[in-house]
Write a structure and sequence with these properties.
The chain is α/β, with parallel strands linked by helices. It has a domain of 80 residues: Cytidine Deaminase, domain 2 (3-Layer(aba) Sandwich), CATH 3.40.140.10. Strands 1-2-4-3 form a 4-stranded parallel beta sheet, with helices on one face. It starts with a helix and ends in a 29-residue tail after the last helix.
Length: 122
């Protein structure tokens, strides 16, 4: 909520913007996000206790198929997980922890990183 309030104090409009947050917003934050006119929220970590979807189902969605931004005439803010490397995994993403070539044949064998959840590749 602080970034929304700070933008208002500085007279910067968040209408039509994308907001990056660390966790899925709680229902209080979700209310402010919708009211501020933000189009999309990308979160890094889930927040299972959040009641945002239950309380604001008319103005929030997690379904991107067919979604249209509120600033372009749509009616719901899109909340979806960030796809990329989260801060906690950033260092591990660039470590050489696996083999790139088969030692016997010399063939390249780049596999999915062992530290990434399988759902990312689903």
């Amino acid at each position: 909520m602080d970034c929304i309030f700070s933008a208002a104090r500085q007279r910067v409009s968040p209408v039509g913007t994308r907001l990056f947050v660390t966790t899925f917003p709680c229902h209080y934050c979700a209310r402010h996000i919708v009211t501020a006119g933000i189009d999309e929220v990308q979160y890094i970590e889930p927040y299972p206790k959040s009641q945002a979807l239950a309380l604001h189902q008319d103005s929030i969605t997690t379904e991107s198929k067919g979604w249209r931004a509120p600033s372009e005439g749509g009616s719901q803010v899109l909340f979806h997980p960030f796809t990329g490397v989260s801060p906690r995994l950033y260092r591990r993403a660039f470590l050489m922890t696996g083999e790139l070539k088969d030692k016997r044949t010399g063939a390249m064998k780049i596999d999915k990183p062992h530290w990434i959840s399988q759902w990312v590749f689903a």
